[in-house]
């Protein structure tokens, strides 16, 4: 989660922003940069997929990939055209809102992309809705009870979780809650195609829990450390000396100030989760972008890989932008300090 | 993406895709050549609670299948993966189909009559069979189906049916077609056992067949739901009340772990392709294993036209230095049977040949290598996780070869590289196959015109017998030719066929009707009509 600290440079332009103006030109510039990043990503991904040792026809045919069959399928998929030609015609289509046709299913990519995006967003937002408040609460409590038993125990557990990759957490949860110990929840998220995953809370439970457990250890420690800094700060000491009730000190003075880095970190966490869902979706067979991407790579289904990667890259850019903008929005308030 | 193996719904399942394979942990366990077929099936567990109560009607059976992906298709002529073939077998009936003894029986084609040299076949379709949309099956459908194979971008059947002189096909009457062939082909019914018959104007988006189940919905890479066809004609089995199920929900599982977990968490009733390592856990959880010996073979392939294997003595030495029993125990975790360098052990013609089982003989292997001037032989074996046990077998072989002074360097590549540009060209490699009848397998694997001739097998004597067999319409005489072909392969062929892997499915106690067959593919050879739920 070094990505969180890597966001620090974003604070620099923030300080230059004029109050009220929020640096619209700066935001526009960041947007342009974002588009360039996404474009660059699409070129790299395109080149990477074409550099793989097989072409899509071989990947689709597998054991049946006799030279004859490969030649016929290659021609019918249009893969005998030059790479640049294939890329440009794909890009041209995307600019007109057409993501092309999947090489594997021969259906429009958008048909697969839309539902997958929706499903992944549900997973992502549910995780954020649970993980962020939980981290704030946990961070605040452990900061207040610093070095107590609860603080130490939580720290130990969180360090353990940090050391374990998400797919291992996922599999442990499956063993615990789905198959062997307490078989009460579904092990795989068998959500029918086209259905809204919110209608399947049992299926969502384990994937969301896995992601929450992957994210909370980072986020809560950030809250805890920020809170400790704030609680040790002079203005909080002053508030205490003035005889303010501890609850007011915490809620009015400490927490709002601790929230600024947390807000930023939360936005970054969301972009981190875009990567996390790829693995977690695969473990639970959750029908989202990650599953779509994993499978498209297996098939060398370049249009689908491109579209999915484009959506993920756009997500990362947007979440990072949001992190910066939020920081800008919150920093002047910070400067004017505890205006009550 | 784990994708595939035994258990293709297609009777002589065509090779399946790499995608499926990767995730399939195939169970091993084939038949000992020459042994009574089912006698070797000691581990087969077929008794279930449901089985004890007898068939009941109703319910939707939920099956989790390995492999599959967005390239899934319900077009039975374009099927690639195991899951495609299984779905096709639910929706469609085939021209012929293997019975429980692995004998090809007339299915939609009621009778196939060759002329004297098997260059022309007269096919009569069964009367009174209707498609799901109510249309009657007739001669036009058969002609349309064969022609349609060649209109597709890809059809696994194109190679098999290239023998048909399509321009010369004639409809003789409402249900009779005369099919001229470009060359003699005495086992044309075997080809028809690969042919699902679709109606004229077939639309793969709304697939209509004659099979026991009807299309309801389908999302490639996710799931398919088929419903009972109350008007099914019953196939050659003619079992009262079938199909028993109201519906069949087949879900794709790219990942082995997810598939097994779904069974343990009661999200599906049955799964295919149980990984070796999970069999005990599944049984401990009260689920039943369907563990059936098959002819699924996992050969090492030696190119007979490339050094050092262009010297027959080296090939013989390699076959002598393998410890087949150890390979079955270690590479297939014991879920398999020992091979004798001849494929199709479940085809009665192979058992009848009475060819002696090759024994492990290091002394003779060393002596042959010495004669060949290859006492310090070093070879590279290209291997890949294309089917369960294949990589393990390669490593075990390397250890065994050392005892005979042969240095086998195992080079493991990923599936994409394996099936990439060097596919069918590796000098020393691995492969996997679902079983076919003997002569049919020769047509595909190592006959003079075989598409997948990975050993580059070309032997004038063998080719002569092959063409004689394909001209011979008398089964008895044809068997003699085949026995000679087997002796030649056994003596100087390029395959090391050390063993056959079992099919291992698993299902809950609610599922009944899983019956072992000699063909031994998943779900009783995709006979979903036979299964029931309690």
Describe the protein in words.
The complex is a heterodimer of chains A (340) and B (534). Chain A is an all-alpha fold and 340 residues long. Chain A contains 14 helices and no strands. In chain A, helix 9 crosses helix 10 (201-231), helix 11 (234-241) crosses helix 12 and helix 12 (246-284) runs parallel beside helix 13. Chain A starts with a helix and ends with a helix. Chain B has 534 residues and is α+β, with helices and mostly antiparallel strands. Chain B has three domains: 33-75 and 211-287 and 508-534, Periplasmic binding protein-like II (D-Maltodextrin-Binding Protein, domain 2), CATH 3.40.190; 93-207, Dipeptide-binding Protein, domain 1; 294-502, Roll (Dipeptide-binding Protein, domain 3), CATH 3.10.105.10. Chain B is built from 18 helices and 21 strands. In chain B, strands 1, 8, 9, 10, 11, 12, 14 and 19 form an eight-stranded mixed beta sheet that branches. In chain B, strands 4-5-7-6 form a four-stranded antiparallel beta sheet. Chain B has a three-stranded antiparallel beta sheet with strand order 17-13-18, covered by helices on one side. The longest helix of chain B is centred in the last third of the chain and has 18 residues, at 475-492. Classes of the chains: A mainly alpha (340), B alpha+beta (534).
